Amino acid sequence: MTVEQNVLQQHSQKHQQTLLNQLRDVTGTTDVQLLQQALQASNGDLAEAVAFLTEKNAKVPQQDEATYYQTAQITNDRYISVGSQADTNVIDLTGDDKDDLQRAIALSLEESNRAFRETGITDEEQAISRVLEASIAENKASLKRTHTEVWSDSPNPYDRKRQDNCPVGLKNVGNTCWFSAVIQSLFNLLEFQRLVLHYSPPARMQDLPRNQKEHRNLPFMQELRRLFSLLVGSKRKYVDPSRAVEILKDAFKSSESQQQDVSEFTHKLLDWLEDAFQIKAEEDREGEKPKNPMVELFYGRFLAVGVLEGKKFENTEMFGQYPLQVNGFKDLHECLEAAMIEGEIESLHSAENSAKSGQEHWFTELPPVLTFELSRFEFNQALGRPEKIHNKLEFPSMLYMDRYMDRNRDITRIKREEIRRLKEHLTVLQQRLERYLSYGSGPKRFPLADVLQYAMEFASSKPVCTSPVEDIDTTAPPGGMTAQLPPPASTGDQPDASVSPEGSSSGLQAQQQQQQQQQQRVSIHKPFTQSRVPPDLPMHPAPRNITDEELRVLEGCLHRWRSEVENDTRDLQASISRIHRTIELMYSDKSMMQVPYRLHAVLVHEGQANAGHYWAYIYDPHHRQWMKYNDISVTKSSWEELVRDSFGGYRNASAYCLMYIDDKKPFLIEEEFDKETGQMLSGLDKLPPDLKEYVEGDNKLFEKEMEEWDALQARKLQQEKLALAAAAASVAAQPMSTEPCPPDNTAPQHDPEYMEQQSPTGDSKHLQEDTQRAISKAAAEHDEKSPEALLNTAMKVEYTRLLRFAQEDTPPERDYRLQHVIVYFIHNQAPKKILERTLLMQFADRNLGFDERCKSIMKVARAKLELIKPDEVNMEEYEMWHQDYRNFRETTVFLLIGLELFLKKSYVEALMYLVYAYQYNKELLVKGPYRGHDEDLIAHYRRECLLKLNEHAAALFETGEETEVNAGLSIMNELVVACIPLLLVDEMEEKDMVAVEDMRNRWCSYLGQEMEPNLQEKLTDFLPKLLDCSTEIKSFHEPPKLPAYSTLELCERYGRVMTSLTLSRTPADGR
After folding, report:
1. Which of 610, 128, 125 is nearest to 377 (CA)?
2. What residues form DSSP beta bridges with 305?
3. Which own/partner pairs from 795-798 qualify as long-range (CB within 8 Å, at least 24 positions apart)?
4. Cα(132)–Cα(251) distance, rounded to whole angstroms?
């Protein structure tokens, strides 16, 4: 069989598997034999097959069972039959015997077949076209967005610059995270990477392509080469794959939109690559059987072994991506075991005969790259929509395939039989153990050992009284009745004879009379006293009458029985553990560990069946490190993170595709070496000349972009310097002092606003009062001292006061760092020279005062400033410290306004203030723990604000009103979704992660609800943005403008808001 025939056969096999998968998803039927029968009965028409399976009271068609076992002999006839049904096969949708769901399914399937007949394009290709068109449309729309929106690139090219040799990401150009995940997984297969990079187009490519495949595949191959070359040598942090996606879109024509199945895209991608290499292989080897590297890399073969009416058959089939069902299995080996046996080989009884039937698959040749598709979506017939399976499925990092190989068929069958026998025995033991652990016949059951222990405790309990109803009147009905008989006799030890109607003194007669009266008595109902527990009831249940001998015998029996039950339980548990261990080690001998496959990549989906986000975990064997490829973000990861996100059962994320590579074929991941020097090739050296030139050109464009950015920033800086110089000149021209200003080289060009102001108001007035108090205190102590001595003393007095503030342990509402810059500097251990110059600046204020003493001290301080040499105080460091303090005050204002708005429930306005407060505060805390505010506090209110907005937006969406729905989605898109990367960037913040999951789950819950089509469309368009797990912080809204606050006003307002939080704040637990 030639490679071309193999390819054709493989196409037909994959198409039949696609038909089976579609039929299984639509109908929910998992019986493979029944699905095959339905396809045979309908001659490959999916609509008729659905009608066959879903019609009420449908009968099984009479057909030859042999058709089921001949799947290996499928030819292109099956493929052609889907698209060549006559128009007479159109299903009548007007009948009353079909429900709405069935008619809709039938109509959809018939439309797909009609489209194929008319255009020659399969519905699979149309589906890919639809999602690609949606992606391109989204990309074009994104180009119209302003740079302040979250989906745009950062205007600063340095934010997009690649760091060292970090892997390059792929930009999401509009719902194309699936494209990024698949492409990155393939690119990191170095052998595949080399094949693509060194692919040379056929010589006839310059001419008009001969057919549609060449017209589509060869240009796509060229774009893929360029994309791979950028991933190798680009200086950008991420690259744009739009041109490759454009070609995919242009390959198909469709006007509708439909959610794309990523596994189908992967199938098609490999098909196109296979076709491109096949064209080249045919040209290179004229007259010979061409070898297709894609086939050799990704395709294997298995043997279908079956039994029909006692007759055996064997057929060889080709496979690429191997599909596996997830539902009902706990690990990958269980999935494989089930997939290798299609319909268990068992006896099928009929009216005429009894025969064995079934088939097994045995791999005869495994591909170097072994890919498993995990089917995590199923069609819910009751709800009429697909649903995602979130069940946990474990898979190993090293997979041994020996048990599935044809050469090990005999030994595997023996081991399978042994496992089957052990599992049957295990089931019996587990049932016996369950009877011990859940004893009883009612709805509530308990461990038998505990029941016996409770019985022993009851028997051993000592009663308080002999009867729980002794001396208690019989309870009357709730209505109550008054006694119609004479009062009851006394309750003494002996009846009182005087109460007898006959006045008899006989004790016997009196006792009989008393008993007769008690039988006829109707007690008086006492609602407030009758329900009380009598004082002589026992404190706990206990036997009323039991002899010591009875207790001794009973305790002995119960103790013996309990010991027997505990021993039996332990024996059963030990036996079960041994069987589990035996099953686990069944294939652990060396003879069954000769075909190792190492996990290379895991493609993950997060979300629901209708919408979600994709990313990939890929192993870097050279650094022995798992990497997470999430669109433009490429970060280091770990096996623990992979397990958490890929196994399922945690959040809404789980693996949908596993890519293993043959561990005995290192060429798959080996780097390329220079043949002459023997050195490993890296970067641009790995590229052929044409691609090297292409990447160098793109890098020059990026370097030019950075140069233009640098020039722009330099112009802005020069303009700011000119503006500052003009402001300084304006201040110097004012007649505020007769003293000359210090030279530029001895004083900063622009003093901090909290250190000096033009008029004695606000901050300056407050600072001047502190300074004058220090001078007055120094003068009172040493009145005869010179101005210089007074200055030194006053500076010490002021420093001592501020040092005391810095050392004081104060609550959050009284933060002395806001009152004076020196307190902030002391907290953060600023150099002594910085502290001294800052204090001198305080005493050199020209607005200090008008009395002669203050003026003389001010002159001395200014003279000292002039005498400070540039090498004594690093002015850059001085300015840096004061800039940090300005940033601290600015962060405080952001936090203050954000908290005030939050307390007023103005969450939309509060969010941006809290977001920027957190970001700026985080930057401050990098330099030290006292540089900023409590990070947990800001994170809590930022998180709470997002949760409040999410709830508000969801409430607006639930109204169904167009304006309110749009308002809710606008809040989500512009505020909540834009901020989610800020919460995800630090995955160690579990509270933020939980909050994000809460927000996502709230919107994903709408997928299962009935809603108007326009709402469903809006939700489907919005969810991928919400579920995007990228932690890349892109361009954001500009920070809001801040008002100017004096130090006194800032401290007062900050104190008030922090006090309010102390009184009203809930624990910062995320939600």
Report:
1. 610
2. 314, 360
3. 795/836, 795/839, 795/840, 795/843, 798/770, 798/771, 798/774, 798/839, 798/842
4. 10
905-957: pLDDT as tens digits: 999 999 999 999 998 998 898 888 888 999 889 999 999 999 999 999 999 99
User: β-strand 238-239 against 169-170: which pairing, if any?
Assistant: parallel
**Host H or E run for residue 294:** helix 293-298
- Site of tokens 């006792």: 511
Residues 6+ apart with CB under 8 A from 772: 848, 849, 854
Question: Is 619 strand, coil or helix?
Answer: strand
Q: What are the residue numbers of the active site?
A: 177, 605, 613
How far apart are alpha carbons 1004 and 1001 in whole angstroms? 5
d(CA 432, CA 436): 7
Single out the residue of 621, 632, 624, 620 nearest to residue 168, CA to CA: 632
Number of continuous H segments (helices) and E segments (strands) in the chain = 32, 16
Tens digits of per-residue pLDDT, 33-85? Answer: 677 777 777 666 666 676 666 553 334 334 443 333 333 333 333 232 333 33
CB-CB neighbours of 760 under 10 Å: 15
In total, the chain counts a number of residues equal to 1071
Place of tokens 């962060």: 891
Residue 161: strand pairing partners: 236
903 token code pair: 């307390």
Question: How far apart are the C-alpha atoms of 819 and 766, rounded to whole Å?
Answer: 9
The confidence score (pLDDT) of residue 897 equals 93
Sign of CA dihedral 985, 989, 992, 996: positive
In contact, 613 and 606? CB cutoff 8 Å: yes
Q: Give the Cα separation of 1006 and 162 in Å (integer).
A: 40
Q: Are 365 and 320 in contact (CB under 8 A)?
A: no
**Secondary structure (DSSP) of 175-187:** S-HHHHHHHHHHH
Q: Is 703 helix (H, G, I), strand (E, B) or coil?
A: helix
* Nearest CA among 309, 386, 315 for reference residue 26: 386
Cα separation, 891 vs 1045, whole angstroms: 13
CA distance 832 to 295: 72
Tokens of 610: 């209708």
